[in-house]
Design a protein that fits this description.
Elements (H helix, E strand, L loop, with lengths): L2 H11 L3 E5 H14 L6 E6 L6 H10 L2 E4 L2 H9 L7 E3 L6 H9 L3 E4 L2 H10 L5 E6 L21 E2 L3 H11 L3 E5 L9 H15 L7 E3 L17 H19 L4 E4 L3 H4 L3 E12 L4 E5 L8 H5 L5 E3 L7 E7 L7 E9 L6 E5 L19 E6 L2 E6 L4 H5 L8
Parallel strand pairs: 1-17, 2-3, 2-10, 3-4, 4-5, 5-6, 6-7, 6-8, 8-9, 9-10, 12-14
Antiparallel strand pairs: 1-11, 11-12, 11-16, 13-16, 14-15, 17-18
Helix pairs in contact: 2-9, 6-7, 8-9
Length: 401
């Protein structure tokens, strides 16, 4: 998107503001499907936890995507957005058995990552096919909080426990129709991903009624100029070749599935914030903006780096700024970052704000959540209104005390 377009949206809808570029989302989706174009049956299940606005979900449905969900509420939102149950996979962790049964009753694909839950579900619902999430014991991901396939992870059933899975299947008569893995996010080395894929293939050989193999996601996107990203095209060539060979070995056609979230929406997102104050201290120049980690928690939570541009003064002389929010505790977006000269009232643009930004936002400090805008076909469409004081009071019960 152009700077002038973003500034116009900030003027129209106010700051802070989330903006999503539909064209970029479509481009990323097409890029992934093109990389695996030689696979006859490919399923892309958008991991909606990254960004769950109903209009975004409808955009993915229009493109032919399925959904990866992790809560019963996400399942319900997916159905509300028009996805049919067969297009939704439910991959929870540590939820109640009642929630699992709710999802099964809605007809979506169930994915189980716990032996006791598998046995319980197979005993009660032996005729409902389920997918198994394995833990390949492969360390991948850019941060320990998003590396989920290693030996100490809470996710998945260990590959060393496959004999236990087979015993449960035999005892209950249940059907395993899919095998799933997810090693972590921000995968830098596709060879690590391919190594984990071999573990999934070896596991799949032990199940006779599979319909799909789900390789998760975790593809890294670039966060700054020259940053490393997952080479999707190379991964597509190598994994496609291996998958097609496994299909022949297995003796029947299978669906190859992925569940990308960040890869599809991260680069499409822009977060706009207005500068409230420029504060010079003895050693630092602070740019204080009208938002905080209540709206963009990733830098404080993960140590993530978002490119920040002063779109009000894009050609200004660069100076060093520490960009901070208005939350009453440490609330830092960037330390000593080179940014075009900032003045109070300028609008700063945070890039890569499409994934895990609004979806992880909160009302901390009793602040309102911002509005969301979808940029499509050359114009902005409001897809979520900015919260109001009445929204803060909603569901609260005032006692007469």
């Amino acid at each position: 998107m152009q700077t002038t377009e973003l500034l116009a949206l900030a003027e129209t809808y106010g700051c802070p503001l989330y903006v999503y570029d539909a064209h970029k989302i479509e481009h990323q989706y097409q890029r992934l499907t093109n990389a695996f174009s030689k696979v006859e049956s490919l399923r892309i299940n958008y991991a909606m936890k990254a960004l769950s606005n109903i209009s975004i979900l409808k955009l993915f449905r229009k493109m032919g995507s399925g959904l990866d969900t992790v809560s019963i509420q996400e399942v319900q939102l997916g159905l509300h957005a028009g996805f049919t149950p067969d297009k939704i996979i439910f991959t929870p962790n540590g939820v109640s058995f009642e929630e699992l049964e709710q999802a099964a009753a809605l007809g979506v694909q169930i994915n189980i990552d716990n032996l006791s839950v598998l046995e319980h579900f197979g005993t009660k619902h032996p005729k409902t096919p389920v997918c198994i999430r394995i833990n390949p014991h492969v360390m991948a991901g850019g941060n320990e909080n998003i590396s989920v396939g290693h030996i100490d992870s809470k996710f998945g059933i260990s590959i060393y426990q496959v004999p236990h899975i087979l015993r449960i299947v035999e005892n209950t008569g249940m059907t395993i129709n899919g095998i799933h893995m997810h090693t972590g996010s921000d995968i830098l080395d596709i060879e690590v991903f391919l190594y984990a894929a071999e573990i999934l293939f070896d596991t799949a050989k032990q199940f006779n009624n599979l319909e799909f193999l789900d390789f998760g996601s975790g593809f890294k996107v670039p966060y700054k100029k020259g940053d490393i990203e997952t080479n999707i095209e190379e991964l597509g060539k190598k994994l496609t070749k291996r998958f097609l060979a496994f299909e022949k070995e297995y003796g029947k056609p299978l669906t190859l599935a992925f569940e990308p979230g960040k890869f599809l929406v991260s680069e499409a997102g822009y977060f706009l914030a207005k500068v409230n104050v420029v504060k010079q201290t003895t050693s630092t120049v602070f740019a204080g903006i009208d938002t905080g980690f209540n709206h963009l928690i990733r830098p404080m939570f993960y140590g993530s780096s978002h490119t920040i541009e002063n779109i009000s003064n894009p050609k200004g002389k660069e100076r060093f700024y520490t960009v901070v929010g208005y939350i009453c505790e440490t609330d830092t977006f960037a330390n000593n970052r080179r940014i075009a000269e900032i003045n109070e009232g300028d609008v700063l643009c945070f890039k890569n704000a499409g994934a895990y930004c609004f979806s992880m936002s909160s009302n901390y400090n009793s602040r309102f959540k911002p509005a969301e805008v979808l940029w499509k076909d050359g114009q902005g469409h409001l897809i979520r209104e900015r919260e109001t004081f009445e929204d803060l009071l909603q569901n609260q019960i005032l006692l007469d005390i």
